[in-house]
Amino acid sequence: MNAPDRYERFVVPEGTKKVSYERDTKIINAATFTIEREDHTIGNILRMYASYDIRPLSNFVSFCLFLLD
């Protein structure tokens, strides 16, 4: 069969970081986070967390991300 191994979809190769970020040079206090080998689940969690309060009183987002083996 021509399908990739399931193992390769979740396990990060050696030398590759699970989470990395790159600071944005045009916007102050902004960055792009790249999360390797994750499916739609973490995207749904972040989307729901970001839309929890439609009129936030503060200008920041804070979330905690735990990655377990």
UniProtKB/TrEMBL annotation:
<protein>
    <recommendedName>
        <fullName>DNA-directed RNA polymerase RBP11-like dimerisation domain-containing protein</fullName>
    </recommendedName>
</protein>
<dbReference type="GO" id="GO:0005665">
    <property type="term" value="C:RNA polymerase II, core complex"/>
</dbReference>
<keyword id="KW-0804">Transcription</keyword>
<dbReference type="GO" id="GO:0006366">
    <property type="term" value="P:transcription by RNA polymerase II"/>
</dbReference>
<dbReference type="InterPro" id="IPR036603">
    <property type="entry name" value="RBP11-like"/>
</dbReference>
<keyword id="KW-0240">DNA-directed RNA polymerase</keyword>
<dbReference type="GO" id="GO:0003899">
    <property type="term" value="F:DNA-directed RNA polymerase activity"/>
</dbReference>
<dbReference type="GO" id="GO:0046983">
    <property type="term" value="F:protein dimerization activity"/>
</dbReference>
